[in-house]
Amino acid sequence: MSNLRIDNVNQRAPLGIDQGLRRTGSEDFASAVKQAVSNVNRVEEEGNRSIIDLLQGKAEVHETMIALQKADISMRLLLAIRNKVIEAYREISRMQF
User: Fold this and answer.
1) Whole-angstrom Cα distance, residue 52 to residue 80?
2) Could you tell me how many helices (H) and strands (E) the chain has, helices first?
3) What are the φ and ψ backbone dihedral angles of 9, each rounded to 5 degrees?
């Protein structure tokens, strides 16, 4: 048992995740929220465009379904993150200093 070894202990986070962890301040948080909302909005618009393309015969059903699922998952993720942030804010506001 003494010869157990753990490789890659000092692995770096994937590009983007590591940079996001180093951000501090309300301006960075606000810009991250704005970017997340704009990304979800872009995915929603792609889903809507895919529906129009399907109705015009320019796209296949499976392509449209994939675009709509991406939009649905993006929105659910954004709402889940929002709910966690609100829950954390409420928990902090209940603390007594």
Assistant:
1) 29
2) 3, 0
3) -65, -35
pLDDT for res 47: 97
What is the pTM assigned to this prediction?
A: 0.67
> Quick check: 89 pLDDT over 80?
yes
- CA-nearest of 87, 88, 74 to 37 is 74
**d(C-alpha 79, C-alpha 66), whole Å:** 20
Kindly report the backbone phi and psi dihedral angles of residue 83, in degrees, each rounded to the nearest multiple of 5, phi listed first: -65, -40
Per-residue model confidence as pLDDT tens digits over 8-36: 556 554 444 445 455 556 678 889 999 99
Beta-sheet strands, E only, within 1-97: none
Q: What does the chain come to in residues?
A: 97
